[in-house]
TrEMBL record:
Keywords: Activator, Chromatin regulator, mRNA transport, Nucleus, Protein transport, Transcription, Transcription regulation, Translocation, Transport. The keyword Cytoplasm does not apply. The lineage of its organism: Eukaryota, Viridiplantae, Streptophyta, Embryophyta, Tracheophyta. It is found in: Nucleus, Nucleoplasm. Belongs to the ENY2 family. The keyword Protein transport applies. Its main location: nucleus. Component of the nuclear pore complex (NPC)-associated TREX-2 complex (transcription and export complex 2). Component of the SAGA transcription coactivator-HAT complex. Within the SAGA complex, participates to a subcomplex of SAGA called the DUB module (deubiquitination module). This is Transcription and mRNA export factor ENY2. It holds the Pfam family EnY2. InterPro entries: TF_ENY2, TF_EnY2_sf. Involved in mRNA export coupled transcription activation by association with both the TREX-2 and the SAGA complexes. The transcription regulatory histone acetylation (HAT) complex SAGA is a multiprotein complex that activates transcription by remodeling chromatin and mediating histone acetylation and deubiquitination. Within the SAGA complex, participates to a subcomplex that specifically deubiquitinates histones. The SAGA complex is recruited to specific gene promoters by activators, where it is required for transcription.
């Protein structure tokens, strides 16, 4: 018997799927429990400072505030304008190093 197109799945079926964590959730839990997530975050901070990314983002924020006026800018405005530029300007070498560390962790944790 096929399920009706107009009816949502039964609550029991939905609850069973919600109980099982996704692969991403399992990886995130393992990263947090092992302390590796904090180490990766610290590595990212260090690399972004070393390559001048942090100073570049700070300068972009200051320029935006100066252009709009200090009293006319909210944190949300800054995040909305700066975040896409910030994400796009992270050096590929930093991304590659973090990705390699994550892969190494996944192999060692047998996820």
């Amino acid at each position: 018997m096929r399920p009706s197109v107009n009816r949502p799945p039964t609550p029991d079926a939905r609850l069973d799927r919600e109980k099982e964590p996704s692969v991403l959730e399992i990886i995130n839990i393992k990263l947090i429990e092992s302390g590796e997530k904090e180490r990766l975050m610290e590595l990212l901070r260090e690399r972004l400072i070393e390559c001048g990314w942090k100073d570049e983002m700070k300068a972009l924020c200051r320029a935006f505030v100066k252009k709009k006026g200090r009293n006319n800018v909210t944190v949300d405005d800054l995040v909305h304008v700066i975040m896409p530029k910030g994400r796009a300007s992270i050096p590929d070498s930093v991304k590659a190093e973090l990705l390699q560390r994550i892969r190494t962790f996944l192999v060692s944790a047998a996820v």
